[in-house]
Write the structure tokens for this entry.
Amino acid sequence: MTETRRTLDGLKPRELVELLDRLTAAEVATMDIDVDAIGRAIDPRKVGRTDLSKLLGAFSRLAAEGAEISLSKFSADTFAKLITHASKDQLQSVMVDPALRATILDEVYRRMGTHLRQDRAKGLHAVVHWRLSGGSGEGGYDRYETLIDNGVCTVSRAMEGQPRATITVSPVDFLKLITNNASAPVLFMTGKLKVRGDLAFAAGLTGLFDLPRA
């Protein structure tokens, strides 16, 4: 273990967040940083309301500056743990930053194909349109299209296919949904998730994916 790794391991969660928030890409290049280990070490319940957004924002910024460090290095289970233990205020703090919001949502949708249960999606052809509220797109939504076609899931922002279902949800509830911290039927019954199209298909949609757990 390097001296840098030992130093990082010795920091308290908030100290670690503050350090990462100050680092430059040049400094990261000289350090031995395990992104997933840092994610596992941070318990959102033990840090402040904006510290989760600082942590994720630091990784996103450093990656944009050319550092070999990014949110893509989080394992699905580590990301699920962060979402599970984060408060609503902490998640909202993440999602009000347009650049960070876009990075996280893009990363989540990019991974969808790797989490599709091919055994359950075999022979299925379905287009799903997602509308995430509070976005910068048309009507105030961030929009994604997922195409499930015979065991393969692909994602586009073009929204060209005829959707079997169009799902409207807040980004916070979406993150909870895809990390097993919310139920689609419950969100629907409480008005937090709206569906246009095939309701039965939409209700079982998450069952087509191997969702991560904390």
Remarks:
- The mean pLDDT is 92.
- The beta strands are 125-133, 141-149, 152-156, 165-169, 193-197.
- Residues 3-110 form one domain.
